[in-house]
Amino acid sequence: MNIPLTLIGAAFIAGSLLVIGNPAPAHAADSPAQTAVATFAGGCFWCMEPPFDNLDGVLETTSGYTGGYKDNPAYKEVSSGITGHLEALQVTYDPAKVSYETLLDVFWKNVDPLDPYGQFCDKGEQYRTAIFYHSEEQRVAAEASKEALNKSGRFDRPVDTRIIKASTFWPAEDYHQDYYKKNPVRYKFYRYNCGRDQRLKKLWETK
């Protein structure tokens, strides 16, 4: 019987197996995740990495500097306050798994949004809190979350966190990335001595 070649699922041609027809569709899990970026300044960037790294849907966090006027600033320059940059964290995430609103909630609960001079034991413009928006949707969400916090009655004075259009983000030096994993003892010592957790507990404990 003469069977058209197009109906044969597989055939040996010249000693090789030839699979005929459309290839199997790629599994959904093989498709790359859609990604988005969020940028937050919350004082020492070492301390901002863990809460976001532990969040399902966050793909990567990068400590760095943004909001200043000098290209490729170094840590010593930023920490001295001469470049106008803030220590910040850039969060790459999958919006299908975690919303920007959830990221905002994590941000607020890991900073002191009332301090106009810095964060905890770190004082200076470079340690102030800020939300850097990458789109109009992020700006609207950030403004709404700030307004809701002000109206919540949780605090006795207005939130002093700025909402700023994102600009160039400069990754910090390699030794700053994942510092809490590379130097856990030093990280915990710094965090405790800076009074971060004590202040956060006071600000965000259930009222």
Notes on the structure:
By secondary structure, this protein is an alpha+beta fold. The protein has a single domain, classed as Peptide methionine sulphoxide reductase MsrA (Peptide Methionine Sulfoxide Reductase, Chain A, 2-Layer Sandwich), CATH 3.30.1060.10. Helix content is 30%, strand content 23%. It contains 7 helices and 10 strands. The strands form 3 sheets. Strands 9-8-3-5-4-10 form a 6-stranded mixed sheet, with helices on one face. It has a two-stranded antiparallel sheet with strand order 1-2. β8 (129-133), α4 and β9 (162-165) form a beta-alpha-beta unit. α3 packs across α4 (136-151). The longest helix has 16 residues, at 136-151. Residues 1-29 have low confidence and may be disordered.
Quick tags:
207 residues; alpha+beta; Peptide Methionine Sulfoxide Reductase, Chain A; 6-stranded mixed beta sheet; two-stranded antiparallel ribbon; 7 helices; 23% strand
Estimated share of beta-strand residues? 15-25%
CATH superfamily: Peptide methionine sulphoxide reductase MsrA
Instruction: Give the class-level CATH name.
Output: Alpha Beta
**Average pLDDT, all residues:** 88
Give unreliable regions as ranges: 1-29
Please tell me the CATH architecture by its name: 2-Layer Sandwich
Largest sheet: 6 strands, mixed
The total strand number stands at: 10
How large, in whole angstroms, is the Cα Rg? Answer: 24 Å
What is the count of helical runs? Answer: 7
Work out the count of structural domains: 1
The neighbouring-strand order within the major sheet is: 9-8-3-5-4-10
